[in-house]
Write a structure and sequence with these properties.
The protein has about 180 residues and is mainly alpha-helical. It is built from 9 helices and no strands. Helix 2 crosses helix 4, helix 3 (about 45-65) crosses helix 4 and helix 8 crosses helix 9. The two termini are about 30 Å apart.
Amino acid sequence: MRGIDDEADDQTLLARVAGGDMTAMRTLYERHSEAAHRFVQTRLHDHFEVADIVHNTMLDVWRSAGRFQGRSSVRSWILSIARNKTVDHIRKASRTDLAEPDDTLPDDGPDPESVVAAAQDAVRVQACIAKLGAAMRTAIHLAFFEDLTYGEIAQVENVPEGTIKTRIFHAKKLLMRCLSG
């Protein structure tokens, strides 16, 4: 889990990147490109497309570091850029998933520890996650593998926080059904 010191260090690195410091960019890249790669992979399954999007994301980080306003964590900001690039790519490929879950339902689903404990098998968990729709798969990935808050996920996905809560609620129910079956 990333801490406050990590975020302060990331903000310092980003300020240095804004000043053209390539060493700071290399450090930021090494720190966040893998998370961006895993995030984009939740939506796309073509290794080359994922790598291109991550590369373009990090180029945008280099170009727009001076515009970071600190309203989110650096990681959330980078993942937001990755999300936007991924959405653009999907739109261009005309494969947009327009189905959205009902965000009026409360989140009374099982907690993440129960979901994982019920599986006791990482392969089964990954197989069940792979069966989720793209939006739910992304929300689960960001919440439980990237350790982002619902608010941060909402920023990354550019949707209301309630939508993220609903996606995770439905995803957890589907995961429990898949893992118990």
